[in-house]
Amino acid sequence: MIPETTLAFSGALHAQVKGHLFPPDGLEAAAILICTRTPGPRLRLLVQAVILVPYAACKLRARDAITWPGEFLEQAIDLAEPRGSAMILIHSHPGGLFAFSDADDESDRQVIPSLFHAFGALHGSAVMTADGAVLARLYDPDVKAYAIDLVTVAGDDLSYWWADKATLTGPGVRSIAFTSSMTADLGRLSALVIGASGTGSITGEQLARLGFGQVLVVDFDRIERKNLNRILNSSRADADANRLKVEAFAEAVTAYRGEGVAVPVAASIATRKAVLAAAVCDVVFCCVDTLEARHIADLIAAAFLLPLFDVGVVIPVRRKGNTFAVADVCGRIDYVQPGGSTLQDRGIYTPESLRGEYLRKVAPAAHQQELDAGYLNGLIEEAPAVITLNMRAASACVNEFISRAFPFRLESNRLYARTQFSLAACEEEYFSEDAFTRTPNHILARGNTEPLLGMPMFKGPSR
What are the structural domains of the chain? Predict the structure, then answer.
């Protein structure tokens, strides 16, 4: 079942909190999380800022107890109230208890009411163990507690801690990659696939058969006969009926997974409808060939603290006399973690290239647009036979997700922020997260602040 409530960290902020909560002296420490939330029916709280309670300011610090002054609560309220943010009080359990103690319950009964007295209708508390695992809960204004179903961290690895598994498996136990246990865990997550064509249909098919609880697919385009050779589960009847790609995808998945798994979103990713769909997901796969869509995927990942996997393929060609010859057959997979280097930081697109793409779209130079957007760069081909290349790239993209959610690599996942392969040269190259220069990201954990993603085009209706 898809979790109703989630607390989401970026990898960098989770590491900062963990570093503070577990100092060398082995005693408890505390911090306050300031959280925005995503729009939509599913409650996803996004850790946007943190106030670290200084060790020296605490009246008591022991291995199983801590007392700290209220002045830091006042600081947090001053920061959170103008934004309508939620506050989560978090402290460490150096002894390893992955549960709330009686002392924790009593502390919350004394402190949480003061938060509601100050502002808001949603605050909570959390504990962290030495391996970084987090267990969290929320309170309503009547100070009734309920568990946050899932705590996530999107860093070099993807971490998922489930409230209902806390006492069964302990905080640090992961399912093993490629097992039925992994399938069971994926059944509780939702994925967004942007694009339902060449790589997108293949990526969505893999996610559905791996067992994701929901696979939302965003695409406004319709099936044509010229793309039947590279869209999985498409048919001549679909093309003749001019069916939406997302509808054909959903029908195929329903045939083997049942109702409710595949969710078609018949819209461009450059619409508020699609952005709202993305906000309730757990991971994003970008399978498009336009720079604008990649730009929006970048913004979605940052604003909603979602891991992003971007896949692209190209076959550069060169003129050889009066004909053309293949120069290379290439694929690229980028993993973008919120707060890390973005696709823009990595040069996938620039403000200038976005502007150029827009001008080509609205100007009458359609011929040049086809040249730039096609699979075979420099050669117009109505029905390119590229499904083998798409399969290779889409498989690498989904395996990149698995390697981070259920780690199996021999080396750190940080070394593989980008993978590039050349089938012509039979080579693969890998780039570390540290190989890219990260620029400040001003919409990180922006959540439901209007306009969504900080772009007027996604502003909601006036109230």
Answer: 5-169 (3.40.140.10), 187-458 (3.40.50.720)
